[in-house]
């Protein structure tokens, strides 16, 4: 069996060579399933429950895209990717879409040949310290020992920040978030640094959250965006505008609850175009008229997804902050649907 | 006679004294303690220091175990229960997480209604290895052993029943060709058998499976490799790797001893290359580099890729262990085999290998145990190993975020049981094969 699968795979490889380069949209439709690269487990963003069902902020993007393309948000196969394997998984065609809290950076966009679609979460790096240390600002961390995950952009940001502020620090490198928390709790380091979204969740899970404070400084820009392969513009457009559709839906007050009713009754031409009642935006990207309706129905609009997975009502308790609509002082701004 | 002593000795005792127990200081526990623990001031000091360390360990960890909570829905609830029962500041294990998620530690994302399939496979594994491991198992069972790999793959991954049957047919075909052509010499037979088998797999097996399946669609639900995780993954990789690496290792060891320069050279290059490269590098090759070599859209199963690389890795080590066994064999054994007129394969099969393998048993089992534990490294290529992959995603559920030691204890205990069993079996095997003549 082993041998045959191997040889079978080689045969399949030669056959597949012929169709390589075909549009991702056609592949996904033919397969009837979207293959989505997600995190192997990150609180609020992607986590399987006891029955193996995935949920979270990133997972909701996968489901929205599956809704837009296939009309069924459950038709997703989740491929957990580690920090090391995520870009290869995308580049080699193992996944169609990478929704894995990945920071949009220059070199990833250009050198790694990725196409970042639209920022769905603006994160930034922060610090957490023990309350009794008396530290109230990151500027007071000169000489501190800091727990930091290796091989991440946070490690580089930390070095940049301390250099720019002419301070020194002693890095205590850890392999994972769980290990970092353990080291920090055991007193191996004075401060723990990671993305602010992760810090909030970490602090909330401590036995005594009130003994720890998150410092106000955010020392880096971490725009997290779903990524696709470079060279398939149609697929890039589909993912990008699916994210925008979720954001726009919140702006126009379209929710998973009122969407059917709005589609019938609304007079707002923008909503009509978004929901496919007027015009035919879907056809321009090779999708059905009601692509956006299906995307929004998956888990609701951007605000609903945020509130259900990482918002203030959840234990993670993240405020909207930069991720509020532009009308509310945030950065979420969808271009017009016309 | 009796007069002799009457003059020389004033008193002769004529009755035996009853035996007395040794003095308390010279017997039993006290004697043992004095001899082994307090025989001098250095040993006394070391004993006391050791006792103190043991005491501190127990005092530190015992409460944590004793306060363990089995029934809760989140870490928060666990903490509340422990505080409730043992007062503020008490620490305790939150086994409730294991209680809720144990099935994911064992099976990963394998569909729960199909758990019987891996369990049945695991049970049948013992039947299959029975005739190889224990003498009291009827020898006929070995036929089941030969069929088991196909049965196991079919049970675990599911799919059409024709796939394993037709693949098995391929091997039978190869064997028939081998035994026919083998009359003209073993090399010719082996080559012809291999070529026919490979051609069959390349050209015939895929269409045949489709054909048979379209005529009689028999099969069980297919389970994707992505659903494998936890100990199901570790044991699948471990058993597959062990089963394939032992023969591969033997061939490599013989190849390295060979007189043919090409065979010898290739064996040495393979062994030294694999031993010179860390396993993680090979795993990354399996998961990442192969993706670039193979055309996009190729679905070359990740578990199979990893299993092949793990097998290659273990085979190189096994080869060196067996080479040690071959080298330990007295020269006379080789010469005796030659003197009996045995050809190379018969000499190896009947005289050399049985002895060399027996000598190598501890080393081989060590390599197997090491390899089984190394399967946890697959976490780095995005597979859910039981030690880190599974706990990491469980921690991603906010209910269990912040839990740290419990999964390590649980998974460590299971690994210990499996590895200790392997180690005991190897000692049993050594005893059984004990001969006194050399």
TrEMBL record, chain A:
Keyword check for DNA-binding: no
Domain Solute-binding protein family 3/N-terminal: 33-262
Family: Belongs to the bacterial solute-binding protein 3 family.
Ranges in coiled-coil conformation: none
PANTHER family found in the cross-reference section: AMINO ACID ABC TRANSPORTER PERMEASE (PTHR30085), AMINO-ACID ABC TRANSPORTER-BINDING PROTEIN YHDW-RELATED (PTHR30085:SF7)
Signal peptide start and end residues: 1-22
CDD domains linked to this entry: PBP2_BztA
Gene Ontology terms: biological process: amino acid transport
UniProt entry tagged with the keyword Signal: yes
Protein name: Amino acid ABC transporter substrate-binding protein
Keywords of this entry: Signal, Transport
Pfam family for this entry, one: SBP_bac_3
TrEMBL record, chain B:
Subcellular location: Cell inner membrane; Cell membrane
Pfam families the UniProt entry points to: BPD_transp_1 (PF00528)
Gene Ontology CC terms: ATP-binding cassette (ABC) transporter complex
UniProt GO molecular function: transmembrane transporter activity
InterPro entries: AA_ABC_transptr_permease_3TM (IPR010065), ArtM/GltK/GlnP/TcyL/YhdX-like (IPR043429), MetI-like (IPR000515), MetI-like_sf (IPR035906)
Keywords for the protein's UniProt record, in alphabetical order: Cell membrane, Membrane, Transmembrane, Transmembrane helix, Transport
Record field: transmembrane: 41-65, 114-134, 141-157, 163-181, 188-209, 229-254, 266-290, 302-322, 359-383, 403-422
Residue intervals of the ABC transmembrane type-1 domain: 231-426
Gene Ontology annotations of biological process type: amino acid transport
CDD domains recorded: TM_PBP2
Membrane topology according to the record: Multi-pass membrane protein
Assigned protein family: Belongs to the binding-protein-dependent transport system permease family. HisMQ subfamily.
Protein name: ABC transmembrane type-1 domain-containing protein
Species of origin: Thioclava indica
Taxonomic placement: Bacteria, Pseudomonadati, Pseudomonadota, Alphaproteobacteria, Rhodobacterales
């Amino acid at each position: 069996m082993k041998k045959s699968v191997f040889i079978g795979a080689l045969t399949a490889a030669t056959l597949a060579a012929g169709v390589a380069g075909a549009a991702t949209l056609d592949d996904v439709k033919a397969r009837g399933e979207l293959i989505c690269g997600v995190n192997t487990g990150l609180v609020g963003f992607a986590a399987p429950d006891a029955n193996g069902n995935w949920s979270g902020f990133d997972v909701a993007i996968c489901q929205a895209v599956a809704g837009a393309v296939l009309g069924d948000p459950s038709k997703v196969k989740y491929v957990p990717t580690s920090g090391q394997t995520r870009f290869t998984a995308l580049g080699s065609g193992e996944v169609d879409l990478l929704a894995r809290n990945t920071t949009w950076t220059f070199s990833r966009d250009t050198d790694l040949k990725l196409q970042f679609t639209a920022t769905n979460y603006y994160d930034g790096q922060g610090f957490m310290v023990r309350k009794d240390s008396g530290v109230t600002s990151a500027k007071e961390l000169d000489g501190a020992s800091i727990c930091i995950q290796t091989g991440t952009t946070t490690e580089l940001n930390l070095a940049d920040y301390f250099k720019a502020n002419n301070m020194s620090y002693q890095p205590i490198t850890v392999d994972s978030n769980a290990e970092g928390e353990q080291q920090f709790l055991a007193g191996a380091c004075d401060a723990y640094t990671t993305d602010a979204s992760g810090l909030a969740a970490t602090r909330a899970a401590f036995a005594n959250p009130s003994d720890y404070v998150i410092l106000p400084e955010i020392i880096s820009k971490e725009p997290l965006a779903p990524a696709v392969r470079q060279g398939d513009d149609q697929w890039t457009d589909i993912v990008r505008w699916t994210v925008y559709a979720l954001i726009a839906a919140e702006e126009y007050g379209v929710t998973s609850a009122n969407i059917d009713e709005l589609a019938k009754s609304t007079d707002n031409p923008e909503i009509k175009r978004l929901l496919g009642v007027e015009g035919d935006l879907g056809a321009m990207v090779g999708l059905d008229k009601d692509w956006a309706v299906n995307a929004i129905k998956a888990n609701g609009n951007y605000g609903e997804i945020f509130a259900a997975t990482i918002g203030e009502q959840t234990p993670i308790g993240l405020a909207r902050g930069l991720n509020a609509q532009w009308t509310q002082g945030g950065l979420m701004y969808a271009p017009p649907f016309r | 006679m009796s007069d002799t002593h009457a003059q020389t000795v004033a008193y002769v005792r004529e009755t035996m004294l009853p035996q007395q127990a040794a003095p308390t200081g010279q017997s039993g526990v006290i004697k043992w303690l004095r001899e082994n623990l307090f025989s001098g001031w250095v040993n006394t000091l070391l004993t006391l220091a050791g006792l103190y360390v043991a005491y501190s360990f127990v005092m530190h960890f015992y409460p944590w175990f004793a306060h363990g909570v089995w029934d809760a829905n989140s870490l928060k609830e666990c903490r509340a229960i422990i505080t409730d029962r043992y007062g503020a500041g008490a620490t305790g294990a939150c086994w409730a997480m294991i209680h809720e998620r144990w099935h994911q530690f064992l099976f990963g994302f394998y569909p729960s209604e199909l758990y019987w399939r891996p369990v049945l496979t695991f049970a049948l594994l013992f039947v299959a290895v029975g005739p190889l491991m224990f003498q009291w198992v009827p020898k006929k069972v070995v036929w089941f052993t030969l069929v088991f790999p196909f049965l196991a793959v079919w049970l675990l991954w599911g799919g059409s029943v024709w796939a394993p049957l037709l693949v098995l047919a391929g091997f039978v075909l190869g064997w028939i060709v081998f035994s026919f052509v083998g009359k003209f010499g073993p090399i010719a037979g082996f080559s012809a058998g291999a070529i026919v088998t490979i051609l069959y797999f390349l050209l015939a097996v895929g269409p045949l499976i489709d054909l048979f399946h379209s005529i009689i669609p028999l099969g069980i639900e297919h389970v994707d490799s992505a659903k494998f995780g936890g100990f199901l993954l570790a044991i699948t990789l471990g058993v597959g790797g062990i089963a394939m690496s032992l023969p591969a290792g033997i061939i490599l060891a013989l190849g390295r001893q060979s007189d043919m320069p090409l065979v010898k050279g290739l064996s040495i290059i393979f062994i030294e290359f694999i031993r010179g490269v860390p396993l993680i590098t090979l795993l990354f090759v399996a998961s990442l580099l192969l993706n670039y070599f193979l055309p996009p859209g190729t679905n070359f199963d990740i578990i199979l890729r990893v299993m092949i690389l793990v097998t290659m890795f273990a085979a190189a080590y096994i080869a060196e262990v067996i080479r040690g066994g071959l080298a330990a064999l007295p020269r006379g054994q080789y010469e005796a085999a030659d003197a009996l007129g045995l050809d190379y394969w018969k000499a190896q099969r009947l005289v050399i290998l049985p002895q060399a393998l027996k000598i190598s048993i501890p080393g081989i089992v060590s390599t197997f145990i090491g390899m089984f534990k190394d399967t946890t490294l697959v976490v780095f290529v995005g597979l859910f190993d039981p030690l880190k992959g599974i706990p990491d995603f469980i921690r991603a559920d906010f209910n269990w975020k912040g839990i740290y030691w419990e999964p390590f204890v649980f998974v460590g205990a299971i690994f210990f049981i499996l590895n200790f069993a392997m180690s005991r079996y190897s000692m049993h095997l050594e005893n059984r094969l004990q001969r006194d003549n050399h």
